[in-house]
Specification:
Number of strands of chain B: 0
Largest interface: A-B, 32 and 29 residues
Strand content of chain B: under 5%
Shape of chain A: globular
Number of helices of chain B: 10
Distance between the termini of chain B: 23 Å
Structural class of chain B: mainly alpha
Oligomer: heterodimer
Chain lengths: 420, 264
């Protein structure tokens, strides 16, 4: 079932030569606006019940405006937003809190602002108080709160009632680590009960752990709508986008998207994962010594060449990455036509699962300044545990566990008794 | 407009709790709290009474009291206080809550409703303090005081009409917030509050009818000071003007509703 449908929404902010033109418009006189500044253009997408969607984009891409249009505080200039059910938005936590009032009074105020009646608020109050976990401070003036405590109360009210659609704008890092977990859990719980989530965040891991789909906004339009991994790779490439640079996405046989971007002044010709015998691998055993071998062709004279790589898990989180800038192996002024072979040797100390390798050829420390070529998902491999002890996690970090029985005098008789 | 009223009804608890919060936060950290809302206009009355009573006491007719001027002044101030409070609160209410309007979904009409409620509550407190002072001065209002709720209603209608229109325009042209206090000052002195009607030359008195607050202030004075019924014809004329202003205000509000969040 579609809970939220954004249909060809565009938003422009109008400015007038004189405000009198604006006022005349209200009375039906058709004046021309001086300037129309379009911040959203023709955005359409449907969200189904229980879906979780991350919205990503650079600053000024129109994310917050889109959320406001969906929330209803801004009206779209064209198109419409259709929603079935209550939309709750956490655009700013603790908004409208009065510092002189107690936490409890502010809860009444904030929940009232959301449109709830006194009885409804009273019914939810114990739950809100419990969730905020600020003890006696709940009945003290909010001005005596730490900012974290204020956020706790604010988050507790904002999520006291399960909405059909929950919109969250960069508000997930609430308070300390404990409360962050708690708020994540609550959001997940809502999701499992059928709440649709719409999250704006720059935090890749937050979006990847909550969302099954992401939408990338750029200059007010949707330029990518797909799995979070694919969208983030594209976003990453976009940050580095410069003149003469282009982005391409290839879909592999297994359906995973491979994002390439860069100026192509230096390109990867060949990349392979090999073992010590020189055989190409797509499957390695835990702890095996492996090598990523790549040949690189310099197509144009450049100032410097840095090769970087990263090993990523199935969700696209980087487990390890470095580059030849950090290892102080920068190639200075490589000539046009020259080729280089890089061999990256490392032990496959990873947990069981599938991994990908991203490669980057840049001029300096990061790809943001000058990016020759960036390849996400350049290579894939899986890790299998053949001869190591069973373990969980992404990293193989074989421990030595020592156990020494401690004999204490009081416990000694009962231990003996147990052994008999 | 029916949609707006329904939204207001739906948010009635929020309006009431907001008014209460505003009061309790005012009381929270000052010893006298909300009493200052009463003391301020009373102090003003005291100052005018002290300075002007010698000059103007003689001009007071129709009331037998040594404090007749002070009583007259107080009645006018009660009316003007309500009017100017509501106008100036409505003037800034959208700008002051700009962030809320941009980020929370709620009917914006509750904001002026809260402003009016707070101003009205202040004014009622002022009214009861005035009754106490009148009693101390030996002046008891007559049964005609039952007209007062009607006068209060008219004053609210007029001031909300004016305040809403100015408040909406103020969102787009901020100069209005600077100009209105000046006009309120001028209006105060162009209404017979501090001085009796009798000191205005006969030939100029007709112009007073262009001042919609004049019949209302006069109504307050008739009811509270002279103990007679107000001139209903004049009051009804003001009511008509107020209704037009209110309708215009609501019309502008529906028109500006969408654009307000854009420019805040």
């Amino acid at each position: 079932m579609t809970v939220l449908s954004v249909q060809a929404v565009s938003k422009s902010f109008r400015s007038y030569h004189s405000e009198w033109h604006r006022f005349a418009r209200w009375f039906g006189i058709n004046t021309k606006s001086a300037e129309e500044h379009w911040v959203l253009r023709d955005i359409s997408f449907d969200i189904h019940s229980g879906e979780a969607i991350g919205i990503v984009g650079q600053n000024g891409a129109g994310k917050s405006t889109l959320l406001k249009v969906i929330t209803g505080t801004l009206q779209p200039t064209q198109g419409r937003v259709q929603n079935n059910g209550r939309v709750a938005a956490i655009l700013e936590l603790g908004m409208g809190f009065n510092p002189e009032l107690t936490g409890r009074q502010n809860v009444y105020h904030a929940a009232g602002l959301m449109g709830f009646s006194v009885e409804q608020i009273q019914r939810a109050m114990p739950e809100i108080e419990n969730f905020a976990e600020i003890g006696n401070y709940f009945d003290e003036a909010v001005r005596t709160y730490s900012s974290g405590m204020q956020m706790r109360v604010a988050f507790a009210v904002a999520t006291a009632y399960r909405p059909e659609v929950l919109i969250v704008d960069e508000a997930l890092s609430v308070g300390d680590a404990y409360f962050q977990h708690k708020s994540f859990d609550r959001i997940r719980e809502f999701q499992s009960q059928g709440t649709t989530l719409l999250i704006v965040s720059h935090d890749r891991s937050a979006i990847q752990s909550l969302c099954g789909r992401a939408i990338l906004l750029e200059n007010g339009g949707v330029i990518r709508d797909g799995s979070p991994e694919e969208v983030f790779d594209f976003y990453n490439a976009l940050i580095a986008e410069r003149e003469n640079s282009d982005i391409s996405i290839n879909i592999n046989e297994d359906g995973r998207a491979q994002t390439n971007s860069g100026t192509s002044e230096v390109v990867v010709q060949n990349a392979a994962l090999i073992n010590d015998k020189g055989e190409t691998l797509d499957c390695v055993y835990v702890g095996d010594q492996v090598c990523v071998e790549l040949t690189v062709l310099v197509k144009r004279n450049v100032d410097a060449l840095v090769m970087g790589y990263g090993i990523r898990d199935r969700l696209g989180q980087v487990l390890f990455g470095t580059n030849t800038w950090y290892t102080k192996q920068v190639i200075s002024k490589p000539r046009e036509g020259s080729r280089y072979k890089f061999s990256i040797e490392f032990p496959a100390n990873f947990g069981v699962g599938s991994y990908s390798i991203q490669l980057a050829l840049t001029e300096g420390e990061t790809h943001v300044k000058k990016n020759y070529e960036w390849k996400d998902n350049a290579l894939f491999f899986s890790v299998i545990n053949k001869d190591k002890n069973t373990f969980v996690g992404l990293v193989w970090n074989e421990p030595t566990i020592k156990i020494e029985p401690l004999v204490t005098t009081e416990l000694a008789p009962s231990q003996e008794a147990a052994s008999e | 407009m029916p949609i707006m009223l329904r939204a207001l009804w739906q948010y009635r608890y929020f309006v009431i709790s907001s008014i209460r919060s505003e009061f309790s936060s005012r009381f929270a950290r000052s010893k006298l709290g909300g009493l200052w809302a009463v003391f301020n206009p009373l102090a003003q009355v005291a100052i005018y009474a002290l300075i002007l009573s010698n000059i103007l006491q003689a001009k007071m007719t129709g009331i037998e009291s040594a404090y007749s001027f002070a009583i007259y002044l107080t009645a006018g101030m009660l009316a003007w206080n309500l009017f100017s409070e509501i106008v100036s609160r409505c003037l800034n209410v959208f700008i002051a809550n700009g962030n809320l309007i941009k980020k929370a979904m709620f009917p914006k009409i509750v904001l002026p409703a809260i402003a009016v409620g707070t101003a009205l509550l202040d004014n009622i407190m002022l009214f009861f303090s005035i009754l106490v002072i009148f009693a101390l001065l030996g002046h008891t209002p007559t049964a005609n005081v039952i007209w007062l709720p009607f006068l209060i209603l008219c004053t609210i209608a007029l001031s909300v009409g004016i305040g809403l229109i100015l408040g909406i325009f103020n969102v787009f042209v901020r100069d209005i917030a600077q100009v209105v206090p000046i006009f309120l000052q001028v209006g105060f002195w162009f209404t017979p509050i501090v001085y009796p009607l009798s000191i205005i030359p006969e030939s100029y008195r007709q112009y007073l009818y262009f001042n919609p607050m004049y019949p209302l202030v006069k109504g307050y004075q008739d009811v509270l000071v002279f103990g007679v019924a107000p001139v209903t014809a004049h009051i009804l004329a003001v009511m008509l003007v107020s209704t037009c202003l209110l309708l215009l205000g609501f019309f502008l509000f529906t028109r500006a509703n969408e654009e307000m969040a854009d420019v805040l």
